[in-house]
Amino acid sequence: MYITCLDLEGVLVPEIWIAFAEASGIPELRKTTRDEPDYDKLMKYRLAILKEHGLGLKEIQETIAKIEPMEGAKAFLDELRSICQVIIISDTFSQFATPLMKKLGWPTIFCNSLEVAEDGTITGFRMRCEKSKLTTVKALQSIGFDTIASGDSFNDLGMIEASKAGFLFRSTEQIKKDYPQFPAYETYDELLAAIKKAMV
């Protein structure tokens, strides 16, 4: 039995931090996992910038409320869920993801959580487990599932490599160049066809 494991940001919805960087006028917040492979380092960098500018969860959630899934994302997800189980495995946080899951028809998501003070200041974050994407894929395999995985960033490479089939989706030219062993696609139709073919 197959489970397809998908990244969220950059695959189904726009990058939340880039959207917030534009909304807040703070270009330093544009940095994502496409730029920084070390997620712990990236999040500490982001939280320091938020603290410096006096910004908290409320401001980020106001930006997220305006984000729409990428064109065709919900239809792709609906069709994929009709042929196999799907789990979105993301390094984002439940406080960010919930409104986006509503717009995508409430798919299953495994993500992390933020530590938030009463005044809305984000004081820290809790990762669900170490190397959450790779760890989750291996756990699914340990209970009898074949996994197919797709994502766009450095933090997706572990689950892509460990899966029976793995694909890059709308990734950077540098990642595609550095990891030519992974087929790379730009459209949902291409990705859906590749997943279907991998399940045969």
Level-2 CATH architecture of the domain at 2-12 and 69-110 and 129-198: 3-Layer(aba) Sandwich
CATH fold type of the domain at 2-12 and 69-110 and 129-198: Rossmann fold
Q: In which order are the strands of the major sheet placed?
A: 4-3-2-1-5-6-7
Largest sheet: 7 strands, mixed
Distance between the termini: 11 Å
Structure notes:
The protein is an alpha/beta fold. 44% of the residues lie in helices and 20% in strands. It is built from nine helices and seven strands. The chain has a seven-stranded mixed β-sheet, sandwiched between helices. Helix 8 links the parallel strand 6 (165-169) and strand 7. Helix 1 (16-24) packs across helix 3. It is globular, with a radius of gyration of 17 Å.
Task: Summarize it.
The chain is an alpha/beta fold and 200 residues long. The chain is 44% helix and 20% strand. It has a domain of 123 residues: 3-Layer(aba) Sandwich (Rossmann fold).
Fold blueprint:
Elements: E1 2-6, H1 16-24, H2 39-53, H3 57-64, H4 73-83, E2 85-93, H5 94-103, E3 108-116, E4 122-126, H6 132-142, E5 146-151, H7 157-162, E6 165-169, H8 173-178, E7 184-185, H9 188-198
Parallel strand pairs: 1-2, 1-5, 2-3, 5-6, 6-7
Antiparallel strand pairs: 3-4
Helix pairs in contact: 1-3, 3-5, 4-9
